[in-house]
Every structure is written in C-alpha cells, then in structure tokens.
Amino acid sequence: MARRTGASARTLALTKAQEAVAQRDAERIKREKQVEAALADFYQAQGEVERIHVTAEVAAVPFEAIICESVRSLDRLGETRPGIAGLTGLPLSRVRDCLSGVASNAPVVSCVDEPDRRGHPVADAAALGEQAPATMPVVRSGAD
C-alpha cells in the first residue's frame, strides 16, 4: 500500500477525524435523547403524583376531622397523650396537633362520673353515646 503524502493525506485524515467526531456526536445525541425521555417520564409522573395527593388531601379532610375529634374524645376520657398515641398508632406530635387549642382532659359536659385513678374525669359511656356523632363509634368501658 502506498503511503499518501501532501494534500491527499491531509484530506484522508480530515475525513477520518470528521467520521470519528460524527460518531461521537451521534452517541451523545442518542444519550441526550434517552436522558430527555427519562426526564419527561419523571416530570409526567411527578405531576400525576402531585395531582393525586391534592385530590386525596381534599377527600381526606372529613376523615382528618373525625380522627382529631376521636383523639379529643380519648383525651376527655382521661387517656394520656402517650396513651392515645399507643392506642391509635398516631405519632405523639400528631396527637398534640389534634389537641392543640383544646383544653386537655376537659370533662365531657353532662356525662362525667367520678374521676379515674389519675384524678381525670371519666365520661359515662351511655351518656357519651348520646352525644357522639353518628360517624364515631361509642367507646364502652369494661366496668358496665
């Protein structure tokens, strides 16, 4: 094979260089398109997750209110905050949030019996049942 020199050698070298650069650019473009597709999937899914969370939060509002009312009922029945957390599985911070702005262990009006061993008023379950909203179960003590 004859060795090329001069202008034809330079042209051949330039052609090989352009092919190498074109191949590298094609690989980079392919990778960029893959990155773009992955990001498009990510942002689409993220938008759906946010939409679902907003819808779920709106749907959960009445149940959140029932949860907090139930926590306040347990508080009025003499349960301690750690006790409520243990019974319900709620974090203590959530129990505190539900009770914030409400007098702790306030007696239930017109259905309070003798205080329990800690000195907290204990509600009569039958009287409480008359006052409890229809969506909340009546909690009955074992001492009927």
Automatic annotation (TrEMBL):
Full protein name: Uncharacterized protein
Native source species: Catenulispora pinistramenti
